[in-house]
Design brief:
single chain, about 160 residues, five-stranded mixed β-barrel
């Protein structure tokens, strides 16, 4: 048996929204932080079948935008299945910082993402997993591989 309840949450758009399985629908993921600690971040899988919201998501909203969404949270009877939020209201609270997007380059290393900042005074390179988990800061671009290797040894290779 599935449980449903009204739900409202603020979160950052994690990835580019994609069209849903039916016309005028969209799927997207929000990163929600219940605390100020990144280890508490949760990624919510969201869908919408509201044509206006789907159009906005697919044409105007960008990763990193802060969104306020409301809808129905569905919790399947099987605890192994993820909860899903079906969105029926969306508000853009803040755009992703344009400065950061123009001056920084994201690069993918397998299951990892690194951030190269052209304006940074140091050679330090922040490293995250592709799912957004903080890995650490490599002292230089040459140290990225070593940092990733250490992270995989400590965490059993689960990026």
């Amino acid at each position: 048996m599935m449980n449903t309840e009204p739900f409202t949450v603020d979160g950052f758009l994690d990835t580019v929204p994609t069209p849903g399985d039916a016309p005028h629908t969209a799927r997207f993921q929000l990163v929600v932080s219940p605390t100020d600690d990144v280890v508490d971040d949760v990624i919510w899988s969201c869908t919408t079948s509201t044509p206006g919201i789907a159009h906005t998501l697919l044409t105007e909203i960008q990763p990193g935008d802060l969104l306020h969404v409301s809808g129905v949270l569905t919790q399947p009877g099987d605890p192994a299945e993820p909860a899903r939020l079906t969105v029926d209201a969306l508000e853009l609270l803040a755009n992703a910082p344009a400065r950061a997007l123009k001056e920084m380059v994201l690069d993918r290393y397998g299951d990892y993402v690194v951030v190269f900042d052209a304006d940074a005074d140091a050679d330090a390179v922040p490293v995250f997993t592709a799912l957004g988990q903080w890995v650490g800061t490599a002292e230089s671009p040459d140290a990225i591989g070593t940092l990733i290797e250490i992270h995989e040894r400590v965490n059993g290779g689960d990026a």
